[in-house]
Amino acid sequence: MTVAAILKHKGNTVTTVDPTVTIARVTEILSDHRIGAVLVIDESAQLLGIVSERDIVRCLAANGADGLAMSAGMLMTRAVQVAHPGTTVSEAMAMMTAGRFRHLPVMAHGALIGLVSIGDVVKSLILQREHEVESLVAYVAGHG
User: What tens digit of pLDDT does each residue of 47-57 get?
Assistant: First the structure.
């Protein structure tokens, strides 16, 4: 199974912000959409970075309430790892585990086409394992 299959099931909607948006506004967007991260893009839809809940917590710990006035462009993680439609779910899990991050943008031909979370990946792996078990049970029952 690939990340393209995850996106086919969950959709391609990605919440993005301009780099000038304040962290206070980013927190509102995260809360309103019940999500854990937003992608930061420029006016030409180029991926510049990502701001996650973890980034905001670290910012507030370091800067106090003043951190809320900072911009997404100031706080974002710039070195964003990305997946491609053909990236397998296992490869995505390995990337996220090794990099210790929970959100993985999906790019195709230089364009952002979606975002998968660790929850999406785990759910996909569980469904895949359940299907394998059901297939084995059916095989054994048919040959028993």
Answer: 999 999 999 99
